[in-house]
Task: inverse folding
């Protein structure tokens, strides 16, 4: 694909960035669009996988036919077969009428199976059959039906683990991944990080009629060295938070640190190197340095806590209703602790949680705490909480059971 076609695609779908791996992913998507080959999009959560199937469908001969995007992780195990393949009247208790199912409804069109790694094994067997022969059977029927559906699936990196644990069929994996497309993590996208931040910050500033945000050079460097575990979704949330609550519109690295953006490149190795360069490396020195760093971090956290609790921290022009935006997941979903939230005096705000002191906790405790908070923030709406946590609803159900977090 030539440069101008690539730019047209990016503009049309609102894709920002120029990283070679991103361009390659878009290129492959356009190249395979005209074929009927199955495509498997792989990449961490929040890297922008969902736009790819849309591009493939729109550029294919199926573009005037149906396109369905199904999140396999959000459909309960008991109903997923009937959702996908349909069922006959009376197939099971409650099956009052018959149901066509997505594979029937999408005939001649495209089905996007998101979070395909979450499919139960029995459904995987049905899916493999329909991929290989175009045939499927409705739940409660013996009649073989035919369908002509193009399958595009997406999964995060956990599918490899699912395969090794026997939870995902390897043959299905290879069948789905006839054409694999890898979406790179944000931390591997170099200058795109800054570009994306600027894009999000300026569109939020415009939307909420606030002054634009400017980044200092050290802030730009910090954005690039941070690991971004929640990828572009996290970056978008951070840009929105900064845009809304920072009174100072020129953002320095120090200001970014207050929003949980830490200098990941400097942990461990960097410190040793710095000390060696000065010819004074010793474990004593390192310990002293660490104690000093932790003490000043503690102080900063305390100050931040005070600032957060004082309402002056909120930008005076900032409207509060946007925190209800479904896409608004607070950054701490990716960071175990500390959890920084804002006290906004509005009955509309749902995403306000307590500041949590960063005491050492086991991973399990951290997970339990995060789930508990996400459930409370979302008034026990499991679908919203799962989205905010970046996990499937089924996984959330399991965790709720494991930790006994059912609503009393
Ligand atoms: N290159 C990009 N440019 C602009 N926005 C992006 C880009 N990639 C992802 N996004 C945005 O980031 C968010 C997460 O993307 P999504 O496709 O839902 O991620 P995934 O499905 O991989 O978890 C969405 O709001 C999406 O619009
Ligand atoms: Mg997704």
Result:
């Amino acid at each position: 694909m030539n440069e101008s076609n690539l730019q047209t695609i990016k503009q049309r779908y609102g894709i920002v960035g120029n990283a070679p791996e991103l361009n390659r992913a878009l290129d492959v998507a356009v190249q395979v669009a005209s074929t009927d080959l199955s495509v498997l999009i792989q990449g961490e959560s929040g890297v922008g996988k969902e736009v790819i199937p849309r591009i493939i469908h729109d550029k294919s001969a199926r573009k005037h036919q149906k396109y369905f995007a199904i999140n396999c992780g959000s459909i309960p195990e008991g109903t997923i077969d009937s959702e996908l393949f349909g069922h006959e009247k009376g197939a099971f208790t409650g099956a009052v009428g018959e149901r066509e199912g997505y594979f029937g409804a999408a005939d001649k069109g495209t089905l996007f199976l998101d979070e395909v790694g979450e499919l139960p094994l029995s459904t995987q067997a049905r899916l493999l059959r329909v991929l290989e022969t175009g045939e499927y059977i409705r739940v409660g029927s013996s009649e073989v039906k035919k369908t002509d559906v193009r399958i595009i699936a997406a999964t995060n990196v956990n599918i490899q683990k699912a395969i090794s644990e026997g939870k995902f069929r390897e043959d299905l994996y290879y069948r789905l991944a006839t054409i694999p497309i890898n979406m790179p993590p944000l931390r591997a996208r170099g200058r795109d990080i800054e570009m994306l931040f600027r894009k999000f910050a300026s569109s939020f500033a415009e939307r909420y009629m606030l002054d634009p945000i400017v980044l200092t050079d050290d802030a730009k460097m910090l954005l690039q060295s941070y690991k971004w575990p929640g990828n572009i979704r996290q970056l978008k949330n951070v840009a929105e938070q900064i845009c809304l609550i920072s009174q100072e519109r020129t953002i320095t690295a120090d200001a970014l640190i207050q929003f949980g953006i830490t200098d990941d490149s400097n942990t461990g190795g960097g410190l040793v190197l710095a000390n060696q360069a000065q010819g004074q490396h010793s474990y004593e020195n390192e310990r002293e340095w660490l104690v000093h760093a932790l003490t000043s971090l503690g102080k900063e956290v305390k100050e931040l806590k005070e600032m957060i609790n004082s309402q002056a921290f909120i930008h005076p022009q900032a409207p509060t209703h946007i925190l209800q935006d479904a896409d608004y997941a607070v950054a701490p979903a990716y960071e175990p602790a500390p959890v920084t939230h804002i006290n906004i005096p509005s009955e509309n705000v749902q995403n306000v949680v307590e500041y949590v002191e960063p005491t050492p906790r086991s991973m399990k405790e951290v997970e339990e705490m995060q789930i508990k908070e996400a459930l409370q923030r979302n008034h026990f709406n499991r679908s919203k909480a799962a989205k905010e946590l970046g996990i499937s609803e089924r996984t959330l159900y399991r965790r709720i059971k494991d930790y006994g977090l059912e609503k009393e």
User: Anything to note?
Assistant: The chain is about 45% helix and 10% strand. Residues 268-289, 311-360 have pLDDT under 50 and may be disordered. Residues 14-17, 43, 45-51, 196, 232-233, 236, 327 surround adenosine-5'-diphosphate (ligand 1) (CB under 6 Å).
